[in-house]
Amino acid sequence: MSLDKPYLDVPGTTIFDADQSRKGYWLNQFCMSLMKAENRARFKANERAYLDEWAMSEEQKQAVLARDLNWCIRLGGNIYFLAKIGATDGKSFQQMAGSMTGMTEQEYRDMMIKGGRSPEGNRVLGEDGDAQPHRQPQGAAGRAARGGN
Amino acid sequence: MARITASVYTSHVPAIGAALDQGKTGEDYWKPLFAGYDYSKQWEKQNTPDVVFLVYNDHATAFSLEIIPTFAIGCAAEFQPADEGYGARPVPTVIGDPDFASHIAQSVIQDDFDLTIVNKMDVDHGLTVPLSLMFGQPQAWPCRVIPFAVNVVQYPVPSGMRCFKLGQAIRKAIESYDRPLNVQIWGTGGMSHQLQGPRAGLINKAWDNRFLDRLIAEPGELAKVPHIEYVREAGSEGIELVMWLIARGAMSDVAGSGKAPTVAHRFFHVPASNTAVGHLILENH
Q1: In total, how many domains does chain B have?
Q2: Alpha-carbon span A95 to B18, nearest angstrom
Q3: Of A105, B2, B6, B62, whose CA is between 20 and 30 Å from B264?
Q4: pLDDT above 60 for A125
Q5: Which of A5, A35, A105, A114 to mutate to test the interface with B (most CBs of B within 10 A)?
């Protein structure tokens, strides 16, 4: 019997389960290595060469080089591991989280100060909340992409 | 004998630690958050325990994907604050209590909860931010600490009910230790937050406050809430709240040997970075 996954219908959300963990094992272990200052320095000096030391897929390496955290998560990355890349780049957790919404840093920060993202419309796929697939990217970028202003 | 005098609950947002360490507590953004802990620091001065049994989760710091213990008890003499990628927090070394921790491990394991014993472990913001919030910025922490790490990062994570029952076993273990120690049990993490994907930034104030109400008044019922409700209502990282049920399960009213705890302090604030911050102090009777 395969894993029971009652969480697949939550929009904009990837649960880090055993399947994701297997897929992302080396991606996450690479991230873990960035907890050492000397490894952070080596990674920053030549990112591609450092990534090539790990048994990651080419796509995983591209996702890291692009700093596309949604892409990394699709490939098995977990946010607590991926956060080590952000830390290496000097980014805060808020900057990292915001980057996955398509909003600018300021837009995301303002949303949080106003009380955060509402769960309304964002509990189940198929509703109309701002985290649903048809409303990506969010913020001004999304409005422009969808022909609004 | 050792006794549990209180349970403490608090979020452990890393940005709170960074704000403290960088001297930003007076900024408008952070002032209301830290004001919510003024009472708590005063209360800890008057009620300083000998030992804090501190339930938290490791955030891919001490435990990579190589080994993922569901429940891990720190039995070392000391624990160093971890470098999580930004350099280690400038906070004191955490002093453990190997004898007491080993006693608890023996009692709880023989009570059918399979703990992992850890004799070397760095501790991350999940453990050090609560210490900073409750004790401020001292040269040395005012008590010993037994770290108790729960896996809430990779599924399957333990259920709320498993955590609640584990808390009951921990209470028995603590109360059977033959030294006259004043012990607090802390449950940390949460409240609603999601750090990943297009749904990042989710906050659910109504659900969080209902969680606080129920944690105080009907923890046994609250323990029945399945994981999927935490994820849907409180965000994927809101699952950390199951850890609060360990601390609540250790209160005497749950065992039927005491009255309901007194709510000495309750605080709720949005936001700290991506997260809703909740905080309770419950005095045991």
Answers
A1: 1
A2: 14
A3: B2
A4: yes
A5: A35
User: pLDDT (tens digit, 9 = 90+) per residue, B196-226?
Assistant: 999 999 999 999 999 999 999 999 999 999 9
Among positive and negative, which fits the CA dihedral B151, B157, B160, B162?
Answer: negative
CB-based burial label for B253 (10 Å; 0-12, 13-18, 19+): middle
Residue B281: both structure tokens together:
């102090």
Of A17, A79, A117, the CB nearest to B155: A17
The string of pLDDT tens digits covering residues A30-68 is 999 999 999 999 999 999 999 999 999 999 999 999 999
ipTM: 0.95
Please state, in angstroms and as integers, the Cα–Cα distance from residue A108 to each residue in A102, A113, A115, B240, following that order.
9, 9, 11, 23
Tens-digit pLDDT profile for residues B152-200: 999 999 999 999 999 999 999 999 999 999 999 999 999 999 999 999 9
Contact state of B200 with A36 under an 8 Å Cβ cutoff = no
Reported as a single tens digit per residue, the pLDDT across B227-260 is 999 999 999 999 999 999 999 999 999 999 999 9
* Contact (CB<8Å) B199/A32: no
Select from B12, B33, B34 the least CA-distant residue to B270: B33
Q: Do the beta carbons of residue B132 and residue B117 sit within 8 Å?
A: no
Nearest chain B alpha carbon to A82: B60
B232 strand-pairing partners: none
Q: What's the CATH number where B159 sits?
A: 3.40.830.10
The hierarchical CATH code for the domain A18-89 is 1.10.700.10
Task: Report the residue from B84, B85, B202 with minimal CB separation from A117.
Answer: B202
Contact B233, A119 (CB under 8 A): yes
A17 contacts in B (CB within 8 Å)?
154-156
The boundaries of the domain holding residue B174 are 3-283
Domain ranges of chain A: 18-89, 101-145
